[in-house]
Design a protein that fits this description.
By secondary structure, the chain is α+β, with helices and mostly antiparallel strands. The protein is 26% helix and 27% strand. The chain has two domains: 113 residues, Aminotransferase class 4, branched-chain amino acid transferase, N-terminal domain (D-amino Acid Aminotransferase, Chain A, domain 1, 2-Layer Sandwich), CATH 3.30.470; 157 residues, D-amino Acid Aminotransferase, Chain A, domain 2, CATH 3.20.10. The chain contains seven helices and 16 strands.
Length: 296
């Protein structure tokens, strides 16, 4: 995919606190609370053929994420939906990645957020496959992350909060610096959790196994793929998965709004095949988001 301009220097518009503003003018002050204390939440969602997939689910989660960080958004789910649609229409794109972002403003500085006001921005841009398609077709390579997902009693783990992505960023950078495409993260107990921005699924003997999302996001794409699998009569088991089990799994794939369904060829010392069941679920998901009838 061609290199794009910096994200602060593009043509177009961004929805900011209720109005469309020129892309280059969508700025915040350097003393914004969120920049210093990570008091921000966001969504990543995709539009296919001019329609934003699972829009209401994303808007609902955005509001819930803010609530978990202790601030309420003055925009309803319906208003956020309408703003997202307005942004997509203004972009002129049919297929796009979209980023709603909510944060605490610059009305006050200090750890205490009391007195800060909530803000909301929504942007859309062209973004193809998260991983190179040729690479993903044979399965990406994951390292084992040097950081672990925190316990639920140490962080608001069910909020899609920007601060929780610090260790994901560090783990992704560490993976790329060592020649990998991404990283598999364990949790504070040492159990398998997820990749840096996508949920994990494993296949053995025709059964799908996925870690229980008790310390990371129960992704919208994750839930969608689980539903697609069960429609086909495939058993899906949510449970604790320990690293020593990984050598017994035949297939491994990731799910996420950006990653969609991505095959994994290896994770640390463990290797996996890109099998028929993984391919079928990837096709089912692609058919669903593009509103094509799925083959049974």
């Amino acid at each position: 995919m061609a290199e794009q301009a910096n994200f602060d220097d593009r043509d177009g518009f961004i929805w900011l606190d209720g109005k469309m503003v020129p892309w280059r003018d969508a700025n915040v002050h350097v003393l914004t609370h969120a920049l210093h204390y990570a008091s921000s939440v966001f969504e990543g969602q995709r539009a296919y053929g001019g329609k934003i997939f699972k829009l209401s689910e994303h808007s609902s989660r955005l509001r819930k994420s803010a609530e978990l960080l202790g601030f309420d958004l003055p925009w309803s789910v319906e208003e956020i939906n309408a703003a997202c649609i307005e942004v997509l229409e203004a972009s002129g794109m049919q297929d796009a990645y979209m980023r709603p972002l909510a944060w605490r403003g610059s009305e006050k500085m200090g750890v205490s957020p009391t007195g800060t006001k909530p803000h909301l921005a929504i942007a859309a841009w062209a973004w193809g496959k998260y991983f190179d398609p040729a690479l993903a077709a044979r399965g990406i390579r994951l390292s084992i992350a040097p950081w672990r997902r925190p316990a639920p009693y140490t962080a608001p783990v069910h909020s899609k909060a920007a601060g929780l992505y610090m260790i994901a960023t560090l783990s992704k950078q560490h993976a790329e610096d060592h020649g990998f495409n991404d990283a598999l993260m364990f949790d504070w107990r040492g159990q398998v959790a997820e990749a840096t921005g996508a949920n994990a699924f494993f296949i053995r003997d025709g059964v799908i196994h996925t870690p229980t999302p008790d310390c990371f996001l129960n992704g919208i794409t994750r839930q969608t793929v689980m539903d697609l699998a069960r429609r086909r009569g495939i058993e899906v088991v949510e449970r604790a998965i320990w690293p020593e089990e990984l050598e017994s799994f035949e297939q491994f794939f990731l799910t996420g709004s950006a990653a969609e369904v991505t095959f994994v060829g290896s994770a640390g010392p463990w290797n996996f095949e890109v099998g028929d069941l993984s391919r079928q679920l990837a096709k089912d998901y692609d058919d669903l988001v593009h509103e094509r009838p799925a083959n049974t």
